[in-house]
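Hey team,

Filing this mostly as a record. A colleague (T.K.) asked me to run one chain through the structure pipeline before their review meeting, and I want the input and output archived in the tracker in case anyone asks later how it was produced. No errors, nothing strange. Just documentation.

Input sequence:
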Amino acid sequence: MSEHLSREALRLVKLAHRFSYGDGADPVAGQALATEALVYATLAAHTPAPLTEVWHAQGPGIAPLSLYTHQGAARDHCLRYARSVRPEARDGDFTWSTPGSGGPEELLHDGTTTGAFVVRLSVSAAASQGPVGAAPLSRAFRAQSGSLPLGTYTTARAAQKHCEADLADRHPGADIQTDWLGDDSDTEQPWELVARIDGGPERPVGYEVVPIEVAVEYDPLTSA
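Output structure:
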């Protein structure tokens, strides 16, 4: 996002220079373009880096949406589950598979799958970029189409934008008016996207933004 804003600022600066000093100069238009360029440059300077990572512990016996800001915490959750169903196993009996590019990391027992694995997810870094000692990321928002995850973000609006963009990609050239149904005071409930497409009736279009908790460390008391 910040790269797009920077490119747009540079484009407007070049136009402003041409209108201010080129043949047939129009100082009023040049000043307006320069002002607009300054707006884009300011936005770019204050836009955080778009992506960072969280880790999702998955498997039978593991609570859904067990997300962590550290890979080790997600691994600990999987190991705790594996030990609970194999109490005779020793720590040295467990190993982790080597994932492919972006693939899941699977927990193995004596070379055999335990059904538990860790998946790395991309997350918008807006809330996690702050001064040293700032509170860790505790909530994220997943954009999804039906049951298909589209992306995970630290702001609900970023997730909503992903859904809206995906809807627009499915209806190229259509006139789409969107709205989100949800209760802002209920932080546990998802938002549902409704839309009017080419003047049709407003209806649900199959997209949701789901708030999810992201833990820093594994806590067996809250992750059961």
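Quick notes for T.K.: The helical segments are 2-21, 27-45, 71-85, 156-170. Confidence is low (pLDDT under 50) at residues 124-137.
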